[in-house]
Design goal:
The chain has 7 helices and 8 strands; from the N terminus they run H-E-H-E-H-E-E-E-H-E-H-E-H-H-E. The protein has helices at 2-17, 33-40, 49-59, 113-133, 149-157, 178-196, 204-212, and strands at residues 20-26, 45-47, 90-91, 95-99, 110-112, 140-142, 165-173, 225-230. The radius of gyration is 21 Å and the shape is globular. The termini are far apart.
């Protein structure tokens, strides 16, 4: 009995002393991040902006796509006045045009009130996840695209003190096949809509923007290790 108790204490000490891990997933949509989590980190504390966006959308009778509906902006992309912008316009579904409530969304200074209120609620829930992540007693997974150093730095800093964690980058290799990613995302979106009524569309331009801004994770970002994982279709 004494031996068993000593072994149990030793086991508990190892669990306490073992550093938890932060897995930073790096890859565009439809590359296999959710599958990787199920297979490798199913009991982890998962932080996902998509999850919170869908959660709030469902509660408010909206779809994922509805969360990204915006009015014309005061300025065009070339910073010239946009003649189609009308601050007095009231959308029959999404309400009046208001100032953007999310300070980081500087490229979209105007929004429809109902959409923006939902966005703010999703952001609050995501911030709550960040605030409680390091005290949850679990490994942490940042289930975001994290495609460039700036976005990874922003997400990691929001966790606060991570000195008791080892940070690992899970870098997905999609074999530079952006067209396949686009087709797969469209097929998944169609099936999800048929199964659940939740419409989630990722525009081709969004894929191009994410892939165009990709920066491979580097040890100088604070990673203990970087693990390359092939996308689910890459042999």
């Amino acid at each position: 009995m004494k031996k068993i108790m000593n072994e149990w204490r030793s086991f508990l000490k190892e669990q306490i002393d073992r550093k938890k891990k932060i897995y930073v997933l790096v890859g565009p949509p439809s590359v296999g991040k959710s599958t990787w989590i199920k297979q490798n980190a199913d009991d982890s504390y998962v932080i996902s902006s998509d999850e919170k966006t869908i959660e709030v959308a469902r509660e408010r009778g909206m779809t994922y796509d509805d969360m990204f509906i915006y009015p014309p902006q005061p300025l065009n992309r070339d910073k010239t006045p946009n003649e189609s912008f009308d601050s007095s316009f009231v959308h029959p579904v999404w309400g009046p045009i208001v100032d953007q409530q999310l300070s980081w969304k500087k490229w979209m200074p105007k929004a429809y009130k109902k959409v923006n209120d939902a966005e703010v609620e999703a952001q609050k829930r995501l911030d709550y996840q960040y605030a409680n992540a390091t005290s949850a007693g679990k490994d942490i997974v940042l289930d975001l695209t994290n495609m460039h150093k700036g976005s990874r730095k922003f997400a990691i800093q929001k966790l606060g003190d991570i000195s008791n964690f080892d940070m690992i980058a899970i870098n997905f290799d999609w074999n530079n096949d952006v067209d396949y990613l686009k087709r797969t995302a469209a097929e998944r979106s169609k099936k999800e809509f048929e199964d659940t009524g939740m419409k989630k569309t990722i525009p081709d331009a969004a894929f191009d923007r994410m892939v165009g801004g990709y920066e491979r994770p580097d040890r100088d970002e604070g990673f203990e290790s970087i693990k390359d994982v092939k996308a689910w279709w890459v042999k």
